[in-house]
Design goal:
Blueprint: H1 2-11, H2 16-33, H3 35-48, H4 54-80, H5 83-89, E1 90-93, H6 98-103, E2 106-109, H7 116-122, E3 128-131, H8 138-149, E4 154-157, H9 164-171, E5 176-178, E6 189-194, E7 197-202, H10 204-212, E8 215-223, E9 230-234, H11 246-263
Parallel strand pairs: 1-9, 2-5, 2-8, 3-4, 3-5
Antiparallel strand pairs: 6-7, 8-9
Length: 287
């Protein structure tokens, strides 16, 4: 792992177009080698985009591997490049909603697109709170924490700590950077359609917004064309959210993510088993 970290450190000196192309080349190779992950991605795409041909879905999956690999290598810039260089590569649209973030409890909804770490950097105009998964490898864990902490104060919370530290952070005026669109099992989740397929989806966004009065501001990061950097788009705060129906609030979240996925399908995290948890009696979709 130390050798790999050293290699990433060396790569951050490369111009972004060279680094991006290098990452994509590695991704093309991984698409051929990682059969299990390729199967997961193609299964997800068959479920979510049945209107496409198998050839079109395979092209998206291949491009996803390229994009995901590229994003990993480009993280070296986020971790080690001078902050001035990093900020120059990030194009924010329309602007970071700093006044809104400072005006009251705020949840920054960030779906799992490959450039999500860039969204985290763009949002760091004030201290934030974020969920953090400790890594088994100590050196890699230190690296990830360094990447999260180098842009200013951040309060990292693990899933084991539960909801109380997040509530405390929101009360303290720290926006909560939230990524709720993965399958974490049936606990605190409901089967809500994602691209028309029942998916175990955390209802935490609606419940957290309802209990704290927090506004929900979505943020999505994507690649700029021609290896020019990254685009981070902040969307208007959702009105009348969550309402009284937490299932409908969760459905609204999934519908929003679906719209963003269709805008950049190769950049969504297709190699995750989004439909791993099934309603009682339904067979696995990944066998």
């Amino acid at each position: 792992m130390r050798v790999l970290i050293g290699l990433l450190w060396l790569l951050h000196w490369l111009p972004l177009p060279v680094l991006g192309r290098f990452g994509e080349a590695i991704g093309s190779l991984l698409f051929l080698l990682l059969g299990k992950r390729r199967h997961i991605a193609l299964t997800n795409l068959r479920l979510c985009m049945p209107e496409l041909s198998e050839e079109a879905r395979r092209a998206i999956a291949r491009e996803h591997f390229r994009s995901y690999s590229r994003s990993i290598f480009e993280r070296s810039i986020l971790w080690w490049a001078p902050e001035a260089r990093v900020r120059k590569l990030i194009q924010v649209e329309p602007a970071v909603p700093q006044a809104a973030m400072e005006a009251g409890p705020t949840i920054l909804l960030c779906p799992h697109f490959v450039c999500l770490d860039v969204a985290g950097v763009a949002a760091r105009v004030i201290p934030v709170c974020s969920m953090y998964v400790p890594q088994k490898n100590a050196a890699f864990d230190r690296l990830l924490r360094h990447g999260r902490e180098r842009y200013g104060p951040v309060r990292l919370v693990t899933r084991k700590e539960g909801i109380k530290p997040i509530l405390r952070a929101l009360r303290d005026g720290l926006p909560y950077f939230m990524l709720p669109d993965m399958d974490f099992g049936e606990k605190d989740a409901a089967f809500v359609p994602f691209f028309g397929v029942p998916a175990a989806t955390l209802t935490a966004l609606g419940r957290l917004a309802g209990s704290t009065g927090a506004k929900v501001i979505p943020v999505v990061a994507s690649f700029l064309p021609n290896y020019q950097g990254w685009r981070v788009r902040f969307y208007p705060a959702w009105e009348n959210y969550p309402g009284d129906d937490m299932i409908e609030a969760t459905r609204r979240m999934n519908a929003f993510i679906e719209e963003r996925v269709r805008e950049a399908p190769a950049e969504y995290f297709w190699t995750h088993k989004r439909f791993k948890t099934r309603p009682p009696g339904e067979p696995s979709l990944y066998d």
